[in-house]
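FW: tagging you since you asked about this chain on Friday. Here's the raw sequence from the shared folder, copied in full. Didn't touch anything.
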Amino acid sequence: MASTYLSLHYHIVFGTKNREPFIAPEWQTRLHDYLGGTIRGLGGFPEGVGGVADHVHLLVDLKATHSLADVMRELKKASSAWVHDEIGLRAFAWQEGYAAFTVSATSRDGVRQYIANLETTHAS
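HL: got it, structure written out here
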């Protein structure tokens, strides 16, 4: 093969500190948009962003040069600052850890669909 081809897809999940239901429906979509924009700003590609009051899910494509830990640190730091500044919720914080799972190219549609339906599945 003359060049390098990579397909690096991650399903990332992280929650609010102590799983407090901080993420209100009134600004949830704006937060999801901000998270996706931050991933783009870091050089990644957001394929899906969703969540509920106490956690978020993202399906993201990253480059081989990305360090997942660095991306997560910047994503959580920037989005916490956004909530503090834009929403005015000073008590908001993300939990320390996160979960990240690699996703095969053939499974991306299923994960994207799962993320898109999170509110529906958690409401029941």
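FW: The chain has a mean pLDDT of 94.
HL: agreed, and The CA atoms of residues 84 and 90 lie 5 Å apart.
FW: great, closing this out.
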